[in-house]
């Protein structure tokens, strides 16, 4: 099954953004994307493979763990390695987070 991007993106999106961004039209390995100069940070659920790829790429992370070992990985990243900041959940039930982490990540990426 081939996904036609024009069918899922807002009308004219590719044309409007062609000079200031990039849309990858086929699958590309995450580590390749993370190594691009324009990537300033990575919001991650803290799965170990994604964490390793972000560390190799040198990209600061916002850690948003959901299950299992992701919480332990977040603690190592944020507290021990200081390569990530954590998100603050506004409400335990709805899982939404505050926007405070974005400013912190901008500082890390500078």
Write the layout of secondary structure elements.
Blueprint: H1 13-17, H2 30-34, E1 42-44, H3 48-57, E2 61-63, H4 70-80, E3 84-86, H5 100-109
Parallel strand pairs: 1-2, 2-3
Please tell me about this protein's structure.
It comes from Malus baccata. GO terms for molecular function: UDP-glucosyltransferase activity. Keywords: Glycosyltransferase, Transferase. InterPro entries: UDP-glycosyltransf_plant, UDP_glucos_trans. This is UDP-glycosyltransferases domain-containing protein. With 110 residues, the chain is mainly alpha-helical. The chain has a domain at 44-90. Helix content is 37%, strand content 8%. The chain contains five helices and three strands. The chain has helices spanning 13-17, 30-34, 48-57, 70-80, 100-109; strands at 42-44, 61-63, 84-86. The chain has a three-stranded parallel beta sheet, sandwiched between helices. Helix 3 links the parallel strand 1 (42-44) and strand 2. The chain is elongated. The model has no long low-confidence stretch (mean pLDDT 82).
